[in-house]
Amino acid sequence: MSTTSSSATSPGRPGRRTLGFPVVNALGGLENPNAVPESAAQLQQTSEELVVDERALAEAHASGLTAVNITLGYTLGDLPPYPHTLRELDVWDEIIAARPDDLVKVVRADDIRRAHAEGRVGVIYGFQNAVQVGEEPEVIAERVGRFARRGVRVVQLTYNQANHLGDGSMAPENRGLTDLGRATVEALNEHRLMVDLSHSGENTCLEAARVSRQPVSINHTGCRALADLPRNKTDEELRLVAERGGFVGVYFMPFLTLSGHAGAADVVEHIVHAVDVCGEDAVGIGTDGPVTAIDDLDAYRVLLADQVAERARAGVGAAGERSDTLPFVEDLRGVDQFRDLARLLEQRGYGEERIAKIMGGNFLAYADRVWAP
Known about the structure:
Oligomer: single chain
Helix content: 25-40%
CATH architecture: Alpha-Beta Barrel
Low-confidence stretches: none
Order of helices and strands: EEEHEHEHEHEHEHEHEHEEHHH
CATH topology: TIM Barrel
Structural class: alpha/beta
Radius of gyration: 19 Å
Number of domains: 1
Shape: globular
Largest sheet: 7 strands, parallel
CATH superfamily: Metal-dependent hydrolases
Distance between the termini: 40 Å
Strand content: 5-15%
Number of strands: 12
């Protein structure tokens, strides 16, 4: 049996499984979604409300996950962006400090390698909006420096809507970066943080990729050539990011098909297309979900319908979100999701070296390029 379809015990932590190579989720979570208080009006769970419990950690280890870029700080809603982000940094520092045998905070690429060797899970601090950087160039420079010192390593410029830095994927004007957006990219480059263009509008993505002195990323997306939805990226965007040494992560999301009912086969097709456009050294995975699966899908569907309607009313939803779609791929979830994907890629004809790159090696190489001093 090949490495891609088997599991091995971690040399660092007996009983914890690996796939023989690092698995890095460029956007995901570590929470147990079954233990989170559920409310349709709760558009964004804060880090204090997420439950990182024994089940979630055990299943993360069992999945072979090496590291994950988690979302913290302000993304949307009425919370004050900057104070809320600082508080969430405190919360995640506390979560990691309380679990030293399970978790390691990632501030450089070698921390991911250490997590793999020791059988722990690396936690990468990332934002899915950047409004918390402020609205004055001097403030932006100071705050980005503070976030970098606190361990933030990934900063997504926009969510779906426009902000003062640029347009999100749902902003109809499709403008590029603003002057403050360019100042933010400059500050992120100065502190060697990843400029993540997931959720951005097309022109914001293209301009940021061109003006950035460091390679940029699209940590969780799909291919617009296969499903023409705003949350997916055009071949032009994908190619430009890759040509400049960047990284593209394919998500496990409903936007992979126009029907909204994406399956594991659709994830494979988007990966294959991204590899054809970007080359095998630029593509990885960013599932946009935790390892632990939701147990009661019937109850979840009822809640989800209300949440989708609430997001639409608030102007933060994306085309392709509907009450009858799930925000994950139903047949590619739970503790076997990474093994299942590796097996499907193997069946598609990909060799072990290419699969290892896609499952984590390419993100690790990109992290070396951006985070290295």
